[in-house]
Write a structure and sequence with these properties.
Layout: E1 2-6, H1 11-27, H2 43-51, E2 55-60, E3 63-71, E4 93-101, H3 110-124, E5 129-135, H4 139-147, E6 151-160, E7 163-174
Parallel strand pairs: 4-5
Antiparallel strand pairs: 1-2, 2-3, 3-4, 5-7, 6-7
Helix pairs in contact: 1-2
Length: 176
């Protein structure tokens, strides 16, 4: 059985290990996230999210199998997206950042389950407008988000989290 909770300090290194597992697979050309080891994401990425009280983890028994940062902070690059809901009130927008599932646990529906948690969390906080992003190269994430009803609001060319030449896919969904 899985459960999702706010991360505690000891989860930071476990989330960082997931980042490293994903980067290992990326470097073996078995997946494409567009991330770069040592630049993004790093253990400091997880630490910053934890310090802000915005890091959430999914546990299978007591093993961290997935994680993400959830808040209402839209990255500056979002201003260049062609949002379907451009006039959404800022206080009603929730954002999902850096959703990861440990590759050792992929294919079990944990990504979808985490997004469902994000949606419920957003509604609990009176935020029916959901936003997130992914790298255009991350075709698996794009398929997942499309399957879950997210619309691609455009692709923004940028330097993102220190990574040059990113084609940032901005996604959104309105919960009713």
């Amino acid at each position: 059985m899985t459960r999702i909770r706010k991360a505690v300090y000891r989860d930071i290194s476990k989330v960082a290990q997931i980042y490293e597992h994903i980067l290992d697979i990326e470097e073996q050309s078995q997946s494409t996230t567009g991330w770069i080891r040592g630049i993004y994401p790093t253990e400091q990425t997880a630490r910053n999210a934890w310090e802000a009280g915005e890091l959430f983890v999914m546990l299978q028994d007591e093993t961290v199998v997935a994680a993400a940062k959830i808040n209402q902070i839209q990255v500056p690059e979002y201003k260049d997206a062609a949002w379907a809901y451009p006039n959404a009130p800022e206080e009603q927008i929730m954002v999902l950042h850096t959703l990861v599932v440990d590759p050792a646990f992929s294919g079990k529906g944990y990504g979808s389950e985490f997004v469902s948690f994000y949606e419920a969390y957003a509604l609990e906080h009176h935020c029916p407008y959901l936003r997130m992003d992914t790298n255009a190269r991350n075709l698996a994430a794009r398929r997942l988000y499309k399957h879950l009803g997210y619309l691609e609001a455009g692709i923004v060319s940028c330097v993102f989290n220190g990574i040059p030449d990113v084609q940032l896919v901005c996604l959104e969904k309105l919960l009713k």
